[in-house]
Amino acid sequence: MQIDRIELADCTSPERVISEILRQLPDLQIPVPIEDLAVAVGITDIHRMTTQNFEGGLITQPERRDGVILVNGTANRLRQRYTIGHELGHFLIAAHKPGTSGQFTCSKADMSIRKAGRDDRYKRMESEANRFSAGMLMPLPMFKADMRSQGAPDLQNVVALAARYDVSKEAAAIHYSTYHHDMCAIILSQDDIIRRVYKPSRFPFVEAAIGKPLPHNSLSSGSQNSEAEWDEVDRGVWLASLERPSSINEQALSLAGGWKMTMLIVDETEDESEVDEGFRDTFDVWENPQFPSKSRRR
Ligand SMILES: [Zn+2]
């Protein structure tokens, strides 16, 4: 594997670095050989350490002549792959500067930072390193093509993609809910307490909050099924109940360690057809006496 570093030097965002790497390696295999990739861009060693102090680290120079990646070797293999991708992000995004220690040391919490305020330079670097890792391990041209060929959203597809790309189910779920052509949200819970909510910004606000129990009348709260099962539930179980359609699809899948994955799908086509058929309620009549049949309620 050979990569021309000169061409990467001008790439300022994780997405641009990734697309330049993909341009240079059109036959990149899946799962992505992240360690070979690291070597190809100048990482001389990936050193696994037994430590509780950090999840990953990078020893390099400001001009990035070469680098050594440190990985928490007690973490599981998939997490180690993600960590190597994260540190590689710090190495390849030239604007990333280490902290006062002079080296990059990244905690487990840093590995989950996805948003950063405009002025929070540290968080922005960490979120960019995470975007690089996820985007390099699951390159969008391939990942989107796989999602398209799998069809409608389904948690079994998320599990299959996690295996194919050799990433954790959670990493695959984040990528899946962010980039699937059909809108879906994925919720992770442990022992019936909601731990994460992943959804594209266009998905309606999910009322169920992190740290709270799964809604008691949701499919997920009662499910112990390791076969992903579907049910139609009242919209108000998970989302604001006044909007349309009045019911949504929920899928639940039990995983190891008391973890559960939930998928929510709002079928917007159902919404359109209801409106087109002239479905009306008092809001329509009051706000728009002519009630054109295409009007959308807000
Ligand atoms: Zn970091």
Overview of this protein structure:
By secondary structure, this protein is of the alpha+beta class. The protein has three domains: 5-137, Arc Repressor Mutant, subunit A, CATH 1.10.10; 140-266, Beta-Lactamase, CATH 3.30.450; 268-298, no CATH class. The chain has eleven helices and nine strands. The protein has helices spanning 5-8, 14-24, 34-40, 77-92, 121-137, 140-150, 155-165, 169-179, 219-222, 268-276, 282-287; strands spanning 43-49, 56-60, 67-72, 104-106, 184-190, 193-198, 229-234, 247-254, 259-265. The protein has a five-stranded antiparallel sheet. Strands 1-3-2-4 form a four-stranded mixed sheet, covered by helices on one side. Strand 2 (56-60) and strand 3 (67-72) form a beta hairpin. Helix 2 packs parallel to helix 5. It is elongated, with a radius of gyration of 22 Å. The structure holds zinc ion. Zinc ion (ZN) is lined by residues 86, 90, 104, 106, 110, 126, 129.
